[in-house]
Amino acid sequence: MATFNLPIALTFAAYLSVVLAIGVIACFKTHTASDYFLGGRKLSPGVAAFSAGASDMSGWVLLGLPGYAYVAGLEAGWIALGLCIGVALNWLLSAQRLRIYSFHLDDAVTLPTYLHRRFCCPNPWLKLFAAAFILLFFLFYVSSGLIGAGKLFVAVFGFDYRLSVLLGASIIIFYTLFGGFLAVSWTDLVQGLLMAAALVMVPVIAMQTTGGAGELFTALEAKNPELMTIWNDSKGEPLSAIAIMSLVAWGLGYFGQPHILARFKGIRSNEDVPTARRIAVSWSALSMVGAMLVGLVGILYVDTQMGGDLGDGEKIFMVLVNAIFNPVVAGILLAAILAAIMSTADSQLLVSSSALAEDFYKQIIRKDASQKEVVMVGRVAVIGLSLVAMFLAFNPDSTVLGLVSYAWAGFGAAFGPALILSLYWKRMNWQGALAGIVVGGITVVAWKQVSGGIFDLYEIVPGIVFATVAIIVVSLATAEPEQSVQDGFDRYQGKL
Description:
- This protein is mainly alpha-helical.
- It contains 19 helices and no strands.
- The longest helix is centred in the middle third of the chain and has 48 residues, at about 160-210.
């Protein structure tokens, strides 16, 4: 049980008050389903960029990547490189086209609805399968975020674990429930700035205790030269082509993440996309470098100042913060972890609720549901989905954590090829899209169950390959899209 620290507690309280206030303000600007799920498509470039980045990175950039760098050294740079490339390509290839297409397709709010309308699907199967995958994977993501929030509240306040999970869930539910997409995006802006500040401040200050950047790399080289190479692991074993490909392939997942793609649809105008892209790529690169440096400087700090091994590398950010900074500053920096967790959990919760309201409720139960009714169902869905995720999170050792490791790959493989080809290939039809979603998702789940040889390759790679093949083969083997669909594709292309 952690000791209650008043300065840190007050810092957290101030931060949470800001988040809750944003939710209240956004509530008064939310009237329609488009407002609630896409912010009325009024996001400025900065808000869209920070929101996409913050909802993407989650606690992983403050806990996972520093932990990996702490254990493996510069080997972790392959993941950072892949993710930075993925961010840039996603904004470059998807953002502008998706915003145009989704807007002109009767303001398609959700990804399943976009795919359904893009191909004039004559039945609900494409929309329902896509929504089902979203609900399945995001339940695990949200519950994992609540587990992280619970552990953080235990560490900071000394609360009971289940009470901590309940507290974290209540905060996220509040501003997501009332403010919707605007509240989530505005809080993501605050959280993204806080995360970036933390990832710059912590390694810079920590390096002063080890003699500066030059001394850091010299000392690491002397401690273990394998930490300073991207070609070997920390034990000196050469990284195989499969290992390197698996690390870099994390970047492929961006094309299919519904909560990130929603930011593209919500941006204010097509002319704002290049500005937003530059901000997003810069923020991601800064965050990756900072996270890597946290892990690297942590190796020396633990070795020289703490006299031993940390054990759990993912604690290194919290260890450095608590050891170097006074309680008030430490509270602000630890709040960055909560910001990272919340900025992803809220986005995923909102996308899941939109899938339930728009793609299940309005598709099957009430096709003539009003905008007000859809928003109400979306808000009820936020509560319902949160309760399920919270139940799963009550056990910190839940097997849910095992599934989260490939949920990113599941989204990337299920939706990435379908989305990209829908934006660029005129011959693609709804049968091909459905085949790609099903094949991509199932491949990821099945590939994960086997190990050894080629099966050590990160499952997103075969998932994307097989999904792409399935889309092309099935589309060519079935009837061409109707002329109206092809004409619509040409019109959207003409607006680029």
